[in-house]
């Protein structure tokens, strides 16, 4: 089962919770990462209060009982009951998670409109890469069989325990085959999914890359394209702190409540359960809504296809119009894999000491003919508006201001350098632009400059990489 399908089934069947055995988006196979995750009755990850209690109970366990002789027929849908010694009747329900998940999506999206988009006279060509994760059967059943997209539009759909020897992380590095295929121009829309199906990457024709911060912002700006929100309304929007402020611009323009949370879907879930949140996203390619309590990769893809069906425009045109209306935020992320823990902790400690020094704010850093000034330096903390709980020391933040960033002058520096994008120990940088505010002379011209750079650097959202290359923290 995919992670979003687990959340779906927990909610549909009103279960007290669910146990997920998963490698998530980390490497799979016998030598890869593996974890046990518990979701509560809402379908979302257990909050710290629950997991702490489980841990305390576990410390007092003296024994546990197993039943190795129990043989369950997993191929038969329905209920099976067994008599277990010293326990009594034990019931097992076998469910078709693909059907359950598909039924949920039918109630959210306009499937006839999506079918027309994917198989009608003016259909678009799509390319969906399941990366040999669990999403393959869901994509085949829903997108190909039900919505009519050709069978060969979905690739790598056979789940494999080692993900086919690849890393199922939907980004420009690990979904490089999809990026190359999209650059050929045959397909109008492309998407990749991670191993457990809760994250996604969206591409337009010719490999036009939509970064995850922009993705959730575009969905928010076009949220009425999704019938579900026409019925429920929009209670609020939220993003994790490392995610760029693109969603903030939409929330401000449309006068919607906006929450900035630490990384972790449980923070979103708390807001959803309190009726404060409808749509949210993280910069790690996770997007979702209050239909379940997990991020949902295929939901996000169908949301984008709903926008395409409504607006009858390309992904690139939609993004350009979005930037023109709401402003553009530059964002890049770097992940460092298998680093030495002691060295990493020392670096963070040194960085924190430097940032918390009162003299750090206002300090300037120069590289070449460019000078950057530190405006704010703090250690992000979050007070949950629902239960009042406080999360401290989430991430160190040092936004830079007064940077004359004209992308048209940085085209030669926008190639991806340094570390790739594996999912461990993320080192993130997001820069928030204020170009959404009106009244600036030359504003349209600057946007045109950015678009020109975008054309020449298609498929690479690393325009802000110069901020990392030019602003280098030196602990000595």
- Overall geometry comes to globular
Helix proportion of residues, in percent?
25-40%
Number of helices: 15
Round the mean pLDDT to the nearest integer and report it. 81
The span between the termini is 49 Å
C-alpha Rg (nearest Å):
23 Å
What are the defining features of this structure?
single chain, 476 residues, alpha+beta, five-stranded mixed β-sheet, four-stranded mixed β-sheet, 15 helices, 22 strands, 33% helix
Entry summary:
33% of the residues lie in helices and 19% in strands. It is α+β, with helices and mostly antiparallel strands and 476 residues long.
Structure report:
With 476 residues, the chain is of the alpha+beta class. A hairpin with a 3-residue loop joins strand 8 (200-204) and strand 9. The strands form eight sheets. Strands 6-5-7-8-9 form a five-stranded mixed sheet, with helices on both faces. The protein has a four-stranded mixed sheet with strand order 11-10-12-13, with helices on both faces. Strands 15-16-21 form a three-stranded antiparallel sheet, with no helix packed on it. Helix 7 (212-221) crosses helix 11 (297-311). It is 33% helix and 19% strand.
Topology:
Elements: H1 3-12, E1 17-22, E2 35-40, H2 48-58, E3 78-84, E4 88-94, H3 97-108, H4 111-119, E5 126-129, H5 136-146, E6 154-155, H6 176-183, E7 189-193, E8 200-204, E9 208-210, H7 212-221, H8 227-232, E10 237-240, H9 246-254, E11 258-261, H10 265-273, E12 279-282, E13 286-289, H11 297-311, H12 315-326, E14 331-335, H13 341-356, E15 364-367, E16 370-374, E17 378-379, E18 382-383, E19 390-391, E20 396-397, E21 400-401, E22 426-430, H14 443-456, H15 465-470
Parallel strand pairs: 5-6, 5-7, 10-11, 10-12
Antiparallel strand pairs: 1-2, 3-4, 7-8, 8-9, 12-13, 14-22, 15-16, 16-21, 17-20, 18-19
